[in-house]
């Protein structure tokens, strides 16, 4: 399918879902509120302070409204182990500082690579159970939704990238290029979603309209 047509259909599907949700769960409102609350918390956080609050933003209804967890709930015990690891804590603080101090555009990608949260997770040893990869992906989405989509499932993200003729590798770089491609098409179509969350959600609707 033509990429411009695909993005337009996805945007129209998003608007349709928003209208339908006004009398139901309204996850677009809850998701946006969750993002705003998390970003406000990061903005007020200081580098020498603990980040104990992060758990409540990775799991729960608000986070689910931003990016679904699917079957990943079984990995929550290992997520807690990973989050409490001293090296992970240091890397999370570095990510928070990137959020606070950097221009969130392509120049942030190298900084995210330098932090290497995904690589740390890959090396991390768990006694049993699955690695909490979806939750780590979700965390990156929540922190950097300005330059990412709401897709935390790597397989789904790659499907969308293929539909948009994107060949990038690595979660953060695929995220950025998918979001950038969608932004370019929206600009060409003279469409401006109302919120950062709506814009980030369009990728998920691409799967809905062309699955």
Could you describe the 3D structure shown?
It comes from Metabacillus bambusae. With 211 residues, the protein is mainly alpha-helical. The protein has one domain (3-209). It has 12 helices and no strands.
Summed up, what is this model?
The chain is mostly helical and 211 residues long.
How many separate domains? 1
Helical percentage: 55-70%
Mean pLDDT: 92
Kindly state the number of beta strands: 0
Which descriptor suits the 3D outline? globular
- Enumerate how many helices there are, as a single number: 12
Q: Please give the largest β-sheet.
A: none
Poorly predicted regions are none
SSE ordering: HHHHHHHHHHHH
Structural class: mainly alpha
Radius of gyration: 17 Å
Give the N-terminus to C-terminus distance in angstroms. Answer: 11 Å
Strand content: under 5%
Q: What tags apply to this protein structure?
A:
mainly alpha; SAM-dependent methyltransferase; single chain
Topology:
Layout: H1 3-21, H2 27-44, H3 54-58, H4 61-66, H5 76-84, H6 86-101, H7 108-115, H8 117-123, H9 133-143, H10 154-163, H11 171-188, H12 196-209
Helix pairs in contact: 1-12, 6-7, 10-11, 10-12, 11-12
